[in-house]
Amino acid sequence: QVQLVESGGGLVQAGDSLRLSCAVSGRTWPIYSMAWFRQVPGKERKFVAAIKKSDGSQEYVDFVKGRFTISTNGARDTVWLQMNSIKVDDTAVYYCAARTRPDISTVPNEYDYWGQGTQVTVSS
Q1: Following DSSP, what letter does each residue of the chain receive, concatenated?
Q2: Which of 77, 80, 84, 99 stands 20 to 30 A from 4 (CA)?
Q3: 73: pLDDT confidence band, cut at 50, 70 and 90?
């Protein structure tokens, strides 16, 4: 079994920076890619960023390009989302996800494992 646990969310001001962390434990070897999604009440879960664990290649939704960075450690048991120049519209619950295929996907139902989410609230 695979477990993903997010941390690092909180209340921040617009323009500030925040780093989210996702700790991966259990049967980690079948995981090929990791991603961050976010969701606000009444809305669908939306893709934010993804990274391939094999080569570190990354993909981002246009709204966060140049502001957010996804990264992993050498052991590939941790994934971070560095959020800079954060905006009020970034307010959401952020979820870490893992995929057991090597290609990056932006579709939530193509990810196999999910964390419980961590709330990010951005004030004006």
Answers
A1: -EEEEEE--EEEETT--EEEEEEEEES-TT--EEEEEEE-TTS--EEEEEEETTT--EEE-GGGTTTEEEEE-TTS-EEEEEE-S--GGG-EEEEEEEESSSS----GGG--EE---EEEEEE-
A2: 84
A3: confident
